Amino acid sequence: MNQSTKIENVINYVKAHDIDFTHSKYVLYGRTGATNASLFLFGGLGALSMKQYIIVLGENYLTLILLSMSGDFKESFTTISYDDIFDISFKKGLINAY
Predict the structure, then answer these.
(1) DSSP per-residue string spanning 9-45
(2) How far apart are CA 16 and CA 10, in angstroms?
(3) What confidence tens digit (pLDDT) does each residue in 82-97 have?
(4) Fewer CB in a 10 Å sphere around the end CB: N or C, the chain?
């Protein structure tokens, strides 16, 4: 449970799946929040539609490793070439809002 909180576990997962990786300082956590529609339709259960990722910025590729709700690694990941990325936007979190 919650394997993704330790950088050693992330590095082991990356090496086991031959993911483009340069250094541990290029590993980030990201998530997609629940949409207003899912929160409206399902109430508190709409939060279950959130997705959590580990983002690995490699030398040639960006890799998104999907996590379960408990923070464990799923066996699926997506690799995106930097040539295919046109725009990246970030939202400030609650801690950085001020």
Answers:
(1) HHHHHHHHTT-----GGGEEEEEEPPPHHHHHHHGGG
(2) 10
(3) 889 888 776 666 555 4
(4) C
Radius of gyration of the chain (CA): 15
CA distances from 7 to 50, 51, 70 (A): 22, 20, 16
Q: Which pTM value belongs to this model?
A: 0.72
* Angstrom distance (rounded) from CA 10 to CA 34: 25
Q: How far apart are the first and last CA of the chain?
A: 33
**What are 19's two structure tokens?**
């993911």
Is 71 exposed, middle or buried (CB count within 10 Å of its CB: 0-12, 13-18, 19+)? Answer: middle
